[in-house]
Amino acid sequence: MKETNSNESADICITDQPDNERREIAELFPNMDLTEVFAEYGHLSSEAIIGLILEKRHQIPLKGRNCHRLMLKACSFFVGLSVWWPRWLGGRVRKLLSSFGARVTGIPIDSLLEQPETESGDHPRRQSVKECMECSVCWETTTVDELCFCDGTTMTATSSSSAKLSTETHAFCRLCLERHARAAVEEMPLAKGGLGLRCMAADCNNPITLQELQVFVPSSTVKKLEERCAELSVVQANLKFMERCRSCNCAVELGASPNVLMVFNCPDCRLKFCRLCDEPWQDEHKGVSCEQFAKKQNRERLLEKRLSEAVVHCCAKCKMSFVKHDGCNKVTCPCGATHCYICRQNNITYAHFCACLQEKATKHPFKCAKCGKSCLLWQSSVTVEKQQMDNIRKEMVEEEKREKAKQKRPTTGNTPNANKKKLADEKKKAVHRWLKNRNA
Fold first, then answer.
1. Which helix (H) or strand (E) holds 265?
2. Could you give the percent of the chain with pLDDT greater than 90?
3. Which of 68-82, 133-147, 218-232, 315-329 is predicted with the least confidence, judged by mean pLDDT?
4. Which of 26, 52, 264, 367 has the greatest number of CB atoms lying within 10 Å of its CB?
5. Is the backbone of residue 194 left (phi > 0), alpha (psi -120 to 50) or beta?
6. d(CA 180, CA 200)
7. Lowest mean pLDDT among 232-246, 263-277, 413-427
8. Could you tell me if 163 and 203 are in contact, meaning their C-beta atoms sit under 8 angstroms apart?
9. What is the pLDDT of residue 419?
10. Which segment, 77-86, 138-147, 231-240, is predicted with the most confidence on average?
11. Are the C-beta atoms of residues 48 and 41 closer than 8 Å to each other?
12. Rounded CA gap, 235 and 190, in Å?
């Protein structure tokens, strides 16, 4: 066996160099790793080896990319053996995990050399081998310390009596867990109560807690998940007077209705705005209704705001604004609340929509003669939004006309009481003139 330098990497390591016949067989199957076949069946003829390879072609491993294996000087006592390199051998074999698909578990070779057996008669190698399990998603075998588990015990205090918790614990490898966490950062629902991620196993309600995730997931991802979990906990608290900042999305419980406390002062970004009209707060707005304040500022801005409200929808539960680009008219918010995109009714099911008419209704609003419902599941929202915007423009024009007509009216003598007083004065003057003429 040819020794290699410690600074150089060795190719596939076998006890004897293959002869010309073995080289020809290896060239016939370039993608297969035939080292174990040559080591176990090298005494057979070339025809028998080829037949054996064809028969067991599905069991023979394929060559990995850049599959170069390191030769350790500490393993020189295996030189005389005509067997394949043991899979458990070598602490440096951990570098080959990517080539072997995580099927090699590395153990320091120094712990195997010249060590006596323990009192129980077991070799230290048997005690140092760690327990392995399969990932519930990719089914790759990994050591237990590299796996993350879902936990049903944390749900005991927070779950309702109707919740069905799984008594089985599922294991997940680091790679699958990182992908699952990245998806949960954006829009995937979290575990109930904001305790962490949902278990990736089917029909399992156990959470993967944030405490478990901190070991396997990058800190930046964990920080985003903590923010999402905190937000979900606030939403599920069902606070009556909760408001969110329009700038940083900070949630604050104000303890009073918008009619009582109009101004919202964000504790994080210090942004102030009116809770009724969402306009930036100014001192001129104090004691003035939102309509009067909007008229003073700019009528066009009020029109633009109302037109935007006709297009942008808002979740009644978490106050998140959204716009639907495609799909049906039953919209489900990430917080779990449902919303009809046609009539804006909340907490709906598919029974809210008319199943009699599909694409026959072109006008809005309409009412089905059979079921009496006025919303379609696949009705285009563009027509509805356009009609709502036209109605808003008409209302603004009519309101402006009424204000102009009100300004043209005289400021005095235009009330019923003033007219009565005027008639009484005229009667008194007429009586005085009649008495004066009579005495004359």
1. strand 263-265
2. 0
3. 68-82
4. 264
5. left
6. 8
7. 413-427
8. no
9. 66
10. 138-147
11. yes
12. 13
| Each residue's pLDDT tens digit, 186-245 | 777 777 766 778 888 877 878 887 777 777 888 888 888 777 777 777 776 777 788 888
CA distance 197 to 65: 34
Question: Using CA of residue 395, residue 397, residue 399, residue 405, what is the dihedral sign?
Answer: negative
Check pLDDT > 60 for residue 415: no
Cα–Cα distance for residue pair 28/48, rounded to 1 Å? 14
Structure-token pair, residue 139? 């089914």
Q: Which residue has the tokens 């578990």?
A: 105
pLDDT of amino acid 265 = 85
Instruction: Give the separation between CA 87 and CA 104, rounded to whole angstroms.
Output: 6
Residue listed under structure tokens 């009481």: 417
Cβ atoms of 290 and 276 closer than 8 Å:
yes
Residue pair 191/177 in contact (Cβ under 8 Å)? The answer is no
Q: What are phi and psi of 140, to 5 degrees?
A: -85, 140
Angle at 111 between CA 110 and CA 115, to 5 degrees: 110
**Percent over 70 (pLDDT), the chain:** 69
What are the structural domains, with CATH classification, of the chain?
Answer: 20-130 (no CATH), 141-236 (3.30.40), 244-286 (no CATH), 298-406 (no CATH)
How is 69-127 classified by DSSP, letter by letter? BPPPGGGGGGTT--SPPPTT--GGGGGGHHHHTS------GGGTSS----TTS--HHHH
| Residues 384, 387, 393, 395, Cα dihedral to 10° | -100
With bands split at pLDDT 50, 70 and 90, how would you rate the model's confidence at 14?
very low
Q: Hey, what amino acid is at 431? A: V
Q: Which residues contact 333 (CB under 8 A, 6 or more apart)?
A: 315, 317, 318, 320, 322, 339
Do residues 106 and 94 make contact, with C-beta atoms less than 8 angstroms apart? Answer: yes
